[in-house]
Specification:
The chain is 42% helix and 0% strand. The chain has helices at 12-30, 43-66. The longest helix has 24 residues, at 43-66.
Length: 102
């Protein structure tokens, strides 16, 4: 590892992966054809693009996991309710029924 203080998400490698992914997806979008027409790219080239995108995604996932983050980087509102509720162990009690209330 290098001695610089950049996180994996700020690294040159991550920036390169993002740029490659954008360019490859733009190539796919720009060469998209109507159904029934022959695609201008060969089957071999299309498969190569697929393999490159898989490798890029796998490496991005590794870098994100190495940084301690997860892949579920979805936007959220700050005021939306949290899905998980943490209950301290000290607050957990047994339900003791009152013997007079049967």
């Amino acid at each position: 590892m290098s001695d610089d203080k950049t996180t994996p998400l700020e690294s040159k490698e991550y920036q390169i992966l993002k740029a490659l992914k954008l360019v490859l997806t733009d190539v796919v979008k720009d060469t998209a054809t109507q159904p029934g027409l022959k695609h201008p790219l060969s089957d071999r080239t299309i498969e190569g693009i697929r393999q490159c995108l898989k490798l890029i995604s796998a490496r991005e996932r590794e870098l994100i996991e190495d940084s301690g983050k997860t892949m579920d980087m979805r936007p959220y509102y700050t005021d939306e309710p949290k899905k998980n509720v943490v209950v301290p162990i000290t607050k957990i009690t047994r339900n003791k029924q009152d013997p007079d209330k049967k």
